[in-house]
Amino acid sequence: MSFDQRLLLVHAHPDDECIGNGATMAKYVADGRGVTLVTCTAGEMGEILVPELEHLAADKEDRLGEHRKGEIANAMQVLGVTDHRWLGGFGRFRDSGMKWHDDGYAIPADDIHDNAFWAADLTVAADYLVEIIRDVRPQVLATYDPFGGYGHPDHIQAHRVAMYAAQLAAVPSYRKDLGEPWEIAKIYWNAMSESRMRAGLRALRDAGDSTSFEGMDPDGPLPPFVTADENLAAAVDAQDHVEQKLDALRAYPTQVTTDGPFFALSNNVGSTAWGIEYYRIVKGELGERGEDGLETDLFAGI
Ligand SMILES: CC(=O)N[C@H]1[C@@H](O[C@@H]2[C@H](O)[C@H](O)[C@@H](O)[C@H](O)[C@H]2O)O[C@H](CO)[C@@H](O)[C@@H]1O
Ligand SMILES: [Zn+2]
């Protein structure tokens, strides 16, 4: 099936796409646009929140990746996304793992595997994405900012691979064997609005919830995954699809608990908490904007 307008999303692990872009993806599918998701690893090193599945863990049967392959298939069905691809094929690059630094940000695990995504050769990884870009020919690309949102090494690497592949795919003389050159018109980085985050935290604290997003003060300093509102370029209002996003998140029981902070915020703030998804523009001209100065559509101006 061919689509006039095509969005490509690049993410590191299964579930990242729903957290960052689930409502946008569901909306754009419903609007008749092409939505292609590339996931760089299967999340083999993840935690397991379902006790009866703990045997799948990396340090036991090491079958969490296979299980999360099923989870993301379920989540894509909920969102209506029919074009999901693994970078280099399933299992080509492995989840690098992570641990928390004393200062609260993510750093690579100590003993990363030899095919960990964090250790991948950037050009080798980017070439797989060049081939996908030249096949899909998207007008819009969305991925992480340079810090990978909250700093996970695989998110940082996914940002690097996505931005590098977008450049390479457009070069006519580069790897002609990977397809005809294609220039992506607009590139965005996923963002979380500071004002929305503060309002959400305020609602949680007013409701007596001091554990969700523990340690975060509605009026205090916020972690680096929050973007100052003046740096936002687009707000995709997909509140009509927020239930799909939450249902897609429920498809990841090993990673997301329905009594965790994600759902707590949704329960307290409502559909605006996760039904409006924000973006920073990196490449391309801003199209039509609303009164708040933000685009409402990533394809605006194309
Ligand atoms: C949302 C996301 O990127 N999840 C990653 C992340 O998961 C975290 C990790 O397991 C950490 O040890 C936990 O404390 C934290 O709660 C988890 O969110 O890192 C995993 C390992 O690389 C990855 O599989 C998961 O998708
Ligand atoms: Zn992730």
UniProtKB/TrEMBL annotation:
Organism lineage string: Bacteria, Bacillati, Actinomycetota, Actinomycetes, Propionibacteriales
Keywords linked to the UniProt accession: Hydrolase, Metal-binding, Zinc
Family, as annotated: Belongs to the MshB deacetylase family.
Record's protein name: 1D-myo-inositol 2-acetamido-2-deoxy-alpha-D-glucopyranoside deacetylase
One MF annotation (Gene Ontology) recorded for this entry: N-acetylglucosaminylinositol deacetylase activity
Function according to Swiss-Prot or TrEMBL: Catalyzes the deacetylation of 1D-myo-inositol 2-acetamido-2-deoxy-alpha-D-glucopyranoside (GlcNAc-Ins) in the mycothiol biosynthesis pathway.
The keyword Transmembrane helix is annotated on this UniProt entry: no
Domain of life per record: Bacteria
The organism of origin for this protein: Nocardioides hankookensis
Keyword Zinc recorded: yes
Record HAMAP family: MshB
Reactions accelerated catalytically: 1D-myo-inositol 2-acetamido-2-deoxy-alpha-D-glucopyranoside + H2O = 1D-myo-inositol 2-amino-2-deoxy-alpha-D-glucopyranoside + acetate
Cofactor binding: number and manner: Binds 1 zinc ion per subunit.
Annotated positions binding Zn(2+): H13, D16, H155
Enzyme superclass (EC): hydrolase
